[in-house]
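Marked as duplicate of an earlier ticket. Keeping the data here for the record.
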Amino acid sequence: MSVQPKPVPMPPVIPRRGVRIAGTGSALPSRVVSNDDLAGVIDTTDEWIVQRTGIRTRHVCDPKKGESNLTLCTEALRRALAKAGMQASDLDLIICGTITQDMRCPSTACLVAAELKAGTAAAWDLGAACCGFVYSLNAAHDLIRVGTHKAIGVIGADTVSVLVDYTNRGVCILFGDAAGAAVLTATDDASKGCLAQVNHADGTGWRDLFQPAWDVQIAPGADRTMVRPGCLQMNGREIYRFAVGTFQELIAETLAKAGLTPQDVDHFVCHQSNLRILEAARERFGIPAEKMYVNIDRVGNSSAGSVPLCFDEMRSKGMVREGQIVMFLGFGAGLTWASSVWRV
């Protein structure tokens, strides 16, 4: 007698749902450090820094005022929730893209959840350096799209000033501290949300941008006389080459994946690493200046805080309108690079 196989049940059909960015917020430390301030402690000038990076000032946390990675993250998400008309207890999850946690344990996301009284919402940190927010945005979007979550707070923040050796001219002129956040929610409008995303990493390039805790972690071939354990180390020439090529390839790959042209995108929200890198990409794709927001002159490179800070400033200025197409782009240590193109 033959045994009939049991029928395999079909997986449940998940109705396609949209994802909307219900609110954004950001936070900057009160202390502003100018190029002239840096010229007082290292061999540099305002002209030299502006010519090579486009940076004029950056914000740096003041511990004496109680400013830290946690305070910036908490304030950014608080403001995003307020703009969304929501409470922290409405969130299912908080993701914090950061590499400069005040403590290794617990996660910054858990501490933010406690500060904002998010109840038992899940919380975790995501470490992807300058890509932290874009990686987190993509993960949060997909969790909502498949139906496992309804509302997620996404934070991108770094206080790189705690990792900077202020005798290292090639690093200290670049970085500032900042946090930005977005609240993502499910919507019945399936046209809203991510149209395409790209997430990449190449771990073989780690030695070009890293932070060794101990001498044994110093990359082979590095000039040990210039390396201080605990401080960020960067091969500026290689990172610049990586960023210029990868940034432009990332835009092209994302456009192709979404079936869009540069003209279809209303806003390119880019990681602010170097003004020359932004301008090179803008020229290659024929992107008008008004479509590529720039704030690096005022805030420097704020790592994972860069992209969400830009987007919140744009929304606050009324630049972003419902139904527009927005492309988020990040690249950084790891080496990592990622994008996310949305209909907002």
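See parent ticket for discussion. The chain has a mean pLDDT of 91.
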